[in-house]
Structures are given as structure tokens and as C-alpha cells.
């Protein structure tokens, strides 16, 4: 299927690895020019070079790497100094640490909210009017399945990402955007085989003295699909949400989790 987005420009955050990388790879595969941003320069440069060589394939697709912390004003300025207007924006920030809520002070909460709620809002604010003026825009926020099924040790993530979800629910339905070709949706990943998942299981391993391999195997068995998802699968869903075909889909929370969420709604 031709998604109709070749030649568009996308900003993908947290793009050096994991789910952000999966989204960047899928968009480059569709002929989209991508600005990749992440904090770690070495991993980011390697990821960008890989996409240029292995996915772009000499088709004239631009893949630009910007090593910056997108959660800071300086990081966002560095990105928008490269390019001001984007047709597609994928917001994504590393999840806050897991743990016991009794151990989180105000600074921990502010940091979580800043990265996982306020930063996406700042990025949306920077691009959404231009998208509406041009008559096309796709904003995808990578949040978490914990928005629908909160996880006790991920309280910082539960709170901050739920705040973003509420904000997006209102903004996406604003006619000044929805009627002018701009869609805003959230992707709520379940158990995907990423460094983030490994870090969560490492906490469990440290507490229980079980090996992380045993913990991973038991967790995979809980998923009806019988396995963890891959960044490539996640990226393919993201690319579809960015497509011309998804123009009538906005304000939604898409839950790719291999069937783990037990609810009917």
C-alpha cells in the first residue's frame, strides 16, 4: 500500500533506538525525510547512518541526526534551527524511573511531567498551526499501555502520560485542526522488546533474585500473542497513522499490546 506521504518531512524524537527508531525506519521506508533527535550522539549517528544506507537506499531521502535533549528549550531550538516546518511529528521521551511512590519527591514528579507531558505539548504548539495552514499534519505521541492499565511501579509514567492523554483528547477534536487535515493520535505500546522493558525487568530481578531471562520468559507467556512486539511492528503502525489513508482517525489511543489488555473498550 502506498501511504501517500513520500516527500513529507517528519520529526521523530528518541529515534536512536527502540520504538522511536522503529518509527523513523518505517517513515524513511515510505519515502519520508526524517529529522531524528536523541540525546546520545554516538548511537544516534549510527542509527541515522544505518537508515541512510539500508532503508533510504539512494532514493534521495534526507535523514538528519540532531543530538539534543528535546525536553529542554535549548534542545527544541536546536531541532527547529534545522527545520521549522514539519508534516509529521512523533513525540517520544524515555519513561521516568519505576519504583515506590513514597520515594518520589516533587522534583521527580516535575521531571516526569516535563518530559512526558509538557515537552510533547511544546512540540505540538510549535508545529500544529503550520500544519493546519498547509492542510496536512500528523502528530503521534508515544505514550504507554499504562495509560489504560496503570502499572503500580510506574506511577510517574501513569500520571504524566495520562495528563498528556487528556490534553490531546481535547486538542485533537478542535475543529480548527481536525477540519484542516491535522490528526493527533497516541500510540500506547505494550510489551515491546526494548531497553526500557529490559530495565523494568531488571528492577524485578534485583528485588526477587530471579534471573532476568526467567522474568522475561514468564512475562512473554502472559501476552496472548506469546511474545514481545518488535520496534519494526510498532513503526509500521506509526507509519499508517501518518498516512493519507488515516485522515479520518484522530483523538484516538491505539493499543498495540499483543492482546494483553483484557478490557472490551
UniProtKB/TrEMBL annotation:
Keyword Cell membrane belongs to the record: no
UniProt GO molecular function: 3-oxoacyl-[acyl-carrier-protein] reductase (NADPH) activity
Pfam families membership: adh_short_C2
EC code: 1.1.1.100
Keyword Oxidoreductase: yes
Keywords: Oxidoreductase
CDD domains: BKR_like_SDR_like
Protein family membership: Belongs to the short-chain dehydrogenases/reductases (SDR) family.
Protein name: 3-oxoacyl-[acyl-carrier protein] reductase
